[in-house]
Amino acid sequence: MANNTPLIWLRTFASAARLSSFTHAAQELHLTQAAVSKHMRALELHVGKSLFVRQAHGIKLTELGSRYQVEVEAALVALDHATYDLFGMGDQRSVNLHCNLAFSHWWLMPRLVEFYALHPKVDVELNHSIWDMQNEPVKGDIHVRYGLGQWPENQALRLTDDELVPMVATHLPMEQAMELPLLHVLGYRHGWYWYAEQVQQEWLLDRTHRKVDNSVAAYTIAAQGLGVVLVRSSFIDHEWIQQNLRPLAMPTCKTPEGFFALLKEPNQPNEQVSCLWNWLGKISY
């Protein structure tokens, strides 16, 4: 394999991998779908390995492709930051805040009104994912990630300190609610299995289980009367949750997991990044 890999191939790969679609990558990069497909065939020939599995209704990364995505995205972010820093563009750009989707919806969005009232000239660019791998590089200038805070290589700020609160739809009678299936949010280490063990009520696990990959969907399903969901206490004050869900007559349970803001390093944060970081620190739990 030749040493030099064309940058356009890497940017095309990063876009296609993130969007799981050659068509959407073409739209994002202002290329044709044929050009994206051609770039990816060339890259796979260049590295001598398959990076994608082509399916009838889209694409997905191979295991090697997933590992390569982490390295390529980290390199591209580092290159973009170097361009901003070296050529004096840092103070002119927006703050890139990468968020877990649930955190953004239930916690951040209601608070952004306050932030923009205090800092009307700071431009925050929001990017979302459902879940992040624990070992992947920090995305954006500030990356909000869920976990136990085990990121020693990054400056981390804990934003939430949660209890797990079993909740059901407000319109359900209590006797019906006690028989509902358990709604699991995939990605949380401390979900129903951990909860049942902590409160010594393993009999709960005999119920029907339903699974989704994010809490926005889980809470919405619960509001339809289709299950019991464990709500993070830091989300409970959200107006929608107050109107549509109510606590069930079951114990709450403290969880060591929480949402953390990670600061992109080793780059020195500019004024806008520092402004957002300091604000997050003031309004955290």
Task: Provide the fold topology.
Layout: H1 7-19, H2 22-29, H3 33-47, E1 52-55, E2 58-61, H4 63-86, E3 95-100, H5 101-118, E4 124-129, E5 142-147, E6 155-158, E7 163-169, H6 174-177, E8 182-185, H7 192-198, E9 209-212, H8 215-223, E10 228-232, H9 239-244, E11 245-247, E12 253-254, E13 258-263, H10 271-283
Parallel strand pairs: 3-4, 3-5, 8-9, 8-10
Antiparallel strand pairs: 1-2, 5-13, 6-13, 7-10, 7-11, 7-12
Helix pairs in contact: 1-2, 1-3, 1-4, 2-3
Explain what you see.
The chain is α/β, with parallel strands linked by helices. The protein folds into 3 domains: 7-86, Arc Repressor Mutant, subunit A, CATH 1.10.10; 90-160 and 258-283, D-Maltodextrin-Binding Protein, domain 2 (3-Layer(aba) Sandwich); 163-254, D-Maltodextrin-Binding Protein, domain 2 (3-Layer(aba) Sandwich). The protein contains 10 helices and 13 strands. The protein has helices spanning 7-19, 22-29, 33-47, 63-86, 101-118, 174-177, 192-198, 215-223, 239-244, 271-283; strands at residues 52-55, 58-61, 95-100, 124-129, 142-147, 155-158, 163-169, 182-185, 209-212, 228-232, 245-247, 253-254, 258-263. The strands form 3 sheets. Strands 7, 8, 9, 10, 11 and 12 form a 6-stranded mixed beta sheet that branches. The chain has a 5-stranded mixed beta sheet with strand order 4-3-5-13-6. The chain has a two-stranded antiparallel sheet with strand order 1-2. Helix 5 links the parallel strand 3 and strand 4. The chain is globular, with a radius of gyration of 22 Å. The termini are far apart. The relative contact order is 0.14. The mean pLDDT is 89.
